[in-house]
C-alpha cells in the first residue's frame, strides 16, 4: 500500500476489505498499513461498527471451544480461532509486557511453549491426553505486543499416540516450531 | 524405616538426622516416614525449632539468586537451592492444585517445562541468554502436592551456545528430562 494518505472515505472502504481478508489484523498493523494513528483506526472501527480484535477473536473462538475434548477452555493459552479434531487447529495470542523477561523485553519462552502445547492438546480427539515428547525450536525472539498465530497439524496417529506439528508465526515470519507426541490415557 | 511407632524422643532425634541429610524433605514425606500425622510433624518441627520447608528452601536459595546473571529471581520457576555457573544448578518446586488440568488433576506440562527452562537459563554465565532448541520428554505424570527437584548440568559450551541437560524427579523417580541449547546474545 502506498504511503500517500487516503481520504477518510477511501480508507474506510479499504478498511472493510482488509478486515474481511484478515479478520485478526491488529490496530497496530492497520495503523502501519494506512499510515495513520492508532486513534484514527479506533475511530474508523467505531464508525464502521467493527469490534476490537479481542472481541472479534473471542466471537470466532467461542464455537471452537465447544469442540475441544481434552482440555478446558481456560487452559488453552491463546484464543482458538479454528479447529478440526485430529486434523488441524489455529490459535492467536496477543503478547503483552507481563510476559517478557525484565532484562531483554523478550517474551519468555514458556509462554510460547504453553501456546503450542495447549493447541497441540486441543486438536486431539480424545478425552484425556498428555504430552509425551516435544522437540522445539525458537527461531526469532518475540517482543511484547506482537501477535502470535499458532497452527497445529496432526500428522500421524498410531494407537494412542498423536503426532502434532505446531508452527508459530509473527506476520508470516516463523518464530517457533514444535513437534509433539501426545498420548491419550 | 519400620512402621513401629517411635517414642516422641526417639522420633525427634531421628527427625534431626533426617533433616540434616535431606533438608528439603516435605512434612508429608516425614509423616509417611515416621508413620505419624502431619500435625505431629508440625509440632515436632516447632519443638525442634525447624522452620517449614518453604522457609528452609528460601534461606538456602537467597545466596544462589545473587549468582544468577541471565534472568531475574522472580523469573525462575521454583527455588534455586544450588548453583555453580556454567556447571550445574538445582531447584525445587512444590506443585499445587492451581497448576493442574481440571480434568485429570495432573500438573500442566508447561509448568514443568518452565521450571526446567528457567533453571537451564539460570546456570548460564552470560548477561543475556535465550532458548534456541529443546528436546524434552515427560516420563511420568506429576500430581498436585508432589515436590519436584530439577537438576541442570551444562554439558558443553561452543562459542555462544550452551548445552544444558535438565532432569526432574519426584522422590528419585524421573518424571521429565530435557536437553536445551541456549544462546547468549
TrEMBL record, chains A, B:
InterPro entries named among the record's database cross-references: HotDog_dom_sf, Thioestr_dom, Transcription_factor_FapR, WH-like_DNA-bd_sf, WH_DNA-bd_sf
UniProt-recorded name of the protein: Acyl-coenzyme A thioesterase PaaI, contains HGG motif
Domain of life: Bacteria
Alphabetized CDD domains for the sequence: hot_dog
Location of the Thioesterase domain: 121-174
GO biological process: fatty acid biosynthetic process; negative regulation of DNA-templated transcription; negative regulation of fatty acid biosynthetic process
Key words, A-Z: DNA-binding, Fatty acid biosynthesis, Fatty acid metabolism, Lipid biosynthesis, Lipid metabolism, Repressor, Transcription, Transcription regulation
GO molecular function, one term: DNA-binding transcription factor activity
Amino acid at each position: 500500500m502506498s504511503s500517500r494518505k487516503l481520504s477518510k472515505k477511501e480508507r474506510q472502504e479499504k478498511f472493510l476489505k482488509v478486515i474481511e481478508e484478515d479478520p485478526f489484523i491488529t490496530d497496530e498493523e492497520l495503523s502501519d498499513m494506512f499510515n495513520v494513528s492508532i486513534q484514527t483506526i479506533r475511530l474508523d472501527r467505531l464508525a464502521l461498527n467493527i469490534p476490537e480484535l479481542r472481541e472479534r477473536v473471542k466471537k470466532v473462538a467461542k464455537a471452537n471451544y465447544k469442540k475441544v475434548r481434552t482440555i478446558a477452555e481456560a487452559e488453552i493459552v491463546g484464543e482458538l480461532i479454528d479447529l478440526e479434531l485430529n486434523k488441524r487447529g489455529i490459535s492467536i495470542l496477543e503478547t503483552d509486557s507481563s510476559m517478557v523477561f525484565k532484562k531483554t523485553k523478550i517474551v519468555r519462552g514458556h509462554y510460547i511453549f504453553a501456546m503450542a502445547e495447549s493447541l497441540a492438546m486441543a486438536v486431539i480427539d480424545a478425552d484425556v491426553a498428555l504430552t509425551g515428547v516435544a522437540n522445539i525450536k525458537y527461531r526469532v525472539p518475540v517482543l511484547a505486543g506482537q501477535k502470535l498465530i499458532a497452527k497445529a497439524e496432526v500428522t500421524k496417529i498410531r494407537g494412542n499416540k498423536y503426532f502434532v506439528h505446531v508452527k508459530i508465526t509473527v506476520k508470516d515470519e516463523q518464530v517457533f516450531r514444535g513437534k509433539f507426541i501426545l498420548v491419550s490415557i
